[in-house]
Known about the structure:
CATH superfamily of the domain at 1-78 in chain A: NADH-ubiquinone/plastoquinone oxidoreductase chain 6, subunit NuoJ
Number of helices of chain A: 7
Largest interface: A-B, 88 and 72 residues
Oligomer: heterodimer
CATH class of chain B: Mainly Alpha
Number of helices of chain B: 3
CATH architecture of the domain at 1-78 in chain A: Up-down Bundle
CATH topology of the domain at 1-78 in chain A: Four Helix Bundle (Hemerythrin (Met), subunit A)
Distance between the termini of chain B: 58 Å
Radius of gyration of chain A: 23 Å
Radius of gyration of chain B: 17 Å
Order of helices and strands of chain B: HHH
Structural class of chain A: mainly alpha
Number of strands of chain B: 0
Strand content of chain B: under 5%
CATH architecture of chain B: Orthogonal Bundle
Helix content of chain B: over 70%
Largest sheet of chain B: none
Shape of chain A: globular
Strand content of chain A: under 5%
Distance between the termini of chain A: 76 Å
Amino acid sequence: MAYVFFGYFAGMITLTSILVVVLRNPVYSTLSLLVMFFHVAGLYITLHAEFLAAVQIIVYAGAIVVLYLFVVMLLNVNRDDRYHSQSRIAVFVSVPLSIEFLVLLSGGMGAARRDPAAMAVDAQTSDNTLTIGQALYSTYLFPFEVASLILLAAMVGAILLAKPHIGKNEDKDIPQAPGAQ
Amino acid sequence: MSVPVFYYVILSAIVFLTGIVGVLIRRNIIAILLSIELMLNATNINFVAFSDHLQVIGGQVFVFFALTVAAAEVAIGLAIIIALHRSKSTINVEEFNLLKW
């Protein structure tokens, strides 16, 4: 039964990720990415990571994909009809990577067959969210605070980058204020 | 009877390879950002699979941080795209050669 679920999710993830790259229209690419995020969330559930599955749907499918669609429709981009002119470099990089993949395919078979390690945290029965929360607020407390700093820096940077001509606008706004004239 | 972790590694490798090819062959800068998302998700699948295999919660916590960085990266990347589109009125990466010498 586990194999059936894994096969379905893996097949859909592979198919939609290839569609993201192949489809020419950015809107269709983004929607294909949305389907992929949902299937990755399903894969997380089969791996006993229910909290991450919920976060995956909320953050990726809810926030990030909406942001992408917003920008795609805001810019009103035409579909690009050809691929990058440097696709020879792409072949040059992809061939060694594919060879590595085949090596992984042939050599890794035996290594992963051993039994799972002894259980430090019983993820099968215990509450997944509770376990993650305890780890996040004890062992990983400092990285957690740094992550909040990263989000703050990203917010400030995004506002600064997307706002047009910050210095000029401030000069212009002062004489145009209603009380000024 | 659970699926061996090796299958997850293969799936992750396929998705990561797709992302790399997407970054290299696409000319639309939004499609390049989407391919970066593919690569981040491939690593996340690997982390969760090994977290389940080794019964260590650290892998899932790391996915949490990777998600934070992905959200920050998307916000900054899309802001840069909007600023670029405003100054050059295109999002074709071959038109951007400001830093080329």
